[in-house]
Amino acid sequence: MILQIEQLTRHYGGVRAVDGVSCSVEEGSVTALIGPNGAGKTTLLNVASGVTPPSSGRVLFGGTDITGERADDICRAGIARTFQTPQLFPTMSVLENVLVGATPRGHINLIESALHLPRAAREEVQLRAEAIELLHGLGLPQLADAAVGTLPFGLQRRVEVARALASHPKLVMMDEPASGLSRAETEELRALVATIAGRGITVLLVEHNMRLVMSIASRVLVLDKGKLLAAGSPAEVQANREVQRAYLGS
Amino acid sequence: MRTALAILVLVFPLVFGGYASALHLAILVGIYYTVCVGLTLIFGIGGQLSLAPAAFYGLGAYTSALLAVKLGVPVFIGFVAAAVLCGVTGWLLARPLLRLRAVYLAIATLAFGEILITLIRANTAITGGSTGIVELPAPSLAGFSFSTPGRYYYLVWTLALLSAWIGANIVKSRLGLGLRALAESEIGAASCGVHVARYKAWMFTIGAVLPGLAGALFVHYLGFISPDSFTVQFSILIVMILAVGGRDSFLGALIGAVLVTVLPIALASYERYSPLIFGVLFLASVMFVPKGLAGLLMAAVPKKK
Q1: Measured between beta carbons, which residues in chain A are less than 8 angstroms from residue B249?
Q2: pLDDT tens, B163-188?
Q3: pTM (2 decimals)?
């Protein structure tokens, strides 16, 4: 198990957004986290990625306890993520956004950068070349110099995925990557997730689009009202009476 | 263009050396420019509006002046001490201050400067209070004294160009990218592995060392020091230089520094109206030319690939 969540609780005032959830993500899988609005999916992702500290419980990544660590430390440990509302750097170019994503791969200190010593220059060239290669792999090379803020929404989502991959993560968490995308763009997203999984990177995605979930996820976790309702293969989860009730209200 | 600027700086005294006022203005431009490079990193690149440049400018100036006058420390060692003290102060202040954002940060940095000025004015026995200290020695290195404006010019511009070079290296580096990133989305930057608090602390440290050095050079050039040079008006002057020249490039800071230094001379006969003219210029830049004169220039010059 690459990610294990144990008895995780996060409350905001009196509201338990996540309430004693235990679940895990298998290494190499594409795991979907689904549930009705307000089920606590994004909160769970935020806690796991260090954006929000938990109220109680533990998060283990590759067996190491990362509970409550800062977001940048968790990124350096090997978890990259995207956001429901992309948290890109709009005035910076696509290439620069991806280079920021490569931050954990740099090792140059301030003095070396300030004086532009040979090691700093070499690393700059190398990371830039890697970033361009990554953009090629995702079909974005022609946009390298475009300011991210000027791109259509679908492409911005793609850039955010590229940025996440630039840190060479072991696990990528995506928060509703298909929301706001057209049908064609959703198809492209499906292919993108398959590409990422093909590289051996574990994917955890929060998603509403059930068609998408059922076609790409190997495992599904269902949250409802802050609690884990079900976990299993897409077929098992679809057949689960409680899941049907939570979704259809019947 | 860099080379052209470097040559211009190098030959300027050979051409205008005969005009004392031209040389004096060029020295002031170099000093302002060094301060501006620091604020460009903090405000232009990192997006945090600090009004602390005047405080560090004063801290550096008083450090070097007091060491020279009270303890007889060689001025160049005083310069180093000023840089170190400002750097350490900047680093220590960065974490509590830079949790604040936008106008709150501006107010807190402003308060820091006011506290410092008040302490300087109050401790008359040490600082000379509001009157200040006169007869500061000129710096000298291995028997060579920077006692004439012609020599001081080269000292100031060595520091100015060195600051700009270091600033440009930082902007290109991982630190610079991280600063631009956190200016646009702190959560996004943190999730990319950017240690937001540490990046801001480095930025604030460099942004404290540069005005500190500039302030030290400034008072040993004038030969006297008094608190009036380090009030918030100086910080506002620096912010204005960046607004008019362009805050996201070091070229903008240079254009702005030249303009703000030369304009009062050109307008000397309308001196009464000069605050008004500056005010209008400031507002017009902010409202209509957000990228400043450097931005206009860059848009006019076709990009080379």
Answers
A1: none
A2: 999 999 999 999 999 999 999 999 99
A3: 0.91
